[in-house]
Amino acid sequence: DVKVTQSSRYLVKRTGEKVFLECVQDMDHENMFWYRQDPGLGLRLIYFSYDVKMKEKGDIPEGYSVSREKKERFSLILESASTNQTSMYLCASSFRLDTQYFGPGTRLTVL
Amino acid sequence: AQSVTQLGSHVSVSEGALVLLRCNYSSSVPPYLFWYVQYPNQGLQLLLKYTTGATLVKGINGFEAEFKKSETSFHLTKPSAHMSDAAEYFCALYNFNKFYFGSGTKLNVKP
């Protein structure tokens, strides 16, 4: 079974802090994704990566950056956290682009 | 433009009753279509997917969905609801290397 893990299930940060969300997959997948999930809005794509050191902006990249130094790890960075970034963050990976496997999510609260 | 619409943000059924969750899509090319389930405080789990071929797709936990091109629909059904089916369900469309998610339907199962 594909396993996608995220570094924290719950995280509380203060406005202005730099926040790192880590995602690791164990199936040698090329593709990795970061989404945020908000009630009534479904999932919105923040960034994705097709390969090591490659990244592409998704639909809502503003206020976020990413890093992919190793194939199995994809990090989401909030350079200066703001209250409107309070959300559930979901990481996903895929071998084929058409099927994604999700991690358990990180619920981030920014105070 | 590509989009996914889920009709009904909340659906309530009695245990043993038919489950019907509606999904309509808009796509300029034949899409790949997916249903995912999300249990509380967990990530998304793939229920089933349609790519090509047979339009009736069977998934895990007794769910199935039928691709109807003429109606641009991909509704999810299960003949008999169980309490364990209570969760949020997301319909998704994939094409042009991107996923588009619906806003989700929360299924409540009454005893």
Shape of chain B: globular
**What percent of residues of chain A adopt helix (DSSP H or I)?**
under 10%
* Poorly predicted ranges of chain A: none
**Which residue ranges of chain B are poorly predicted, with pLDDT under 50 across at least 5 consecutive positions?**
none
Number of helices of chain A: 0
In terms of DSSP E residues, the strand content of chain A is over 45%
Q: Could you say which structural class the secondary elements and strand pairing of chain A correspond to?
A: mainly beta
Cα-atom radius of gyration of chain B = 13 Å
Mean pLDDT of chain B, nearest integer? Answer: 93
Radius of gyration of chain A: 13 Å
H/E element string of chain B?
EEEEEEEEEEE
Gross geometry of chain A: globular
- What is the number of E strands of chain A? 11
Largest interface: A-B, 21 and 21 residues
Strand count, sense and closure of the main sheet of chain A?
A: 7 strands, mixed
- What structural category arises from helix and sheet content of chain B? mainly beta
How far the N terminus sits from the C terminus of chain B, by CA atoms, comes to 41 Å
Mean pLDDT of chain A: 92
How far apart, in Å, are the first and last alpha carbons of chain A?
Answer: 37 Å
Explain how this protein is built.
The complex is a heterodimer of chains A (111) and B (111). Chain A is built from no helices and 11 strands. By secondary structure, chain A is mostly beta strands. In chain A, the strands form 2 sheets. In chain A, strands 2, 4, 5, 6, 9, 10 and 11 form a 7-stranded mixed β-sheet that branches. A 4-stranded antiparallel β-sheet of chain A has the order 1-3-8-7, with no helix packed on it. Chain A is globular. By secondary structure, chain B is mostly beta strands. In chain B, the strands form 2 sheets. In chain B, strands 2, 4, 5, 9, 10 and 11 form a 6-stranded mixed β-sheet that branches. In chain B, a hairpin with a 5-residue loop joins strand 6 and strand 7. In chain B, 36% of the residues are buried. The mean pLDDT of chain B is 93. At the A-B interface, strand 5 and strand 10 of A face strand 4, strand 5 and strand 10 of B.
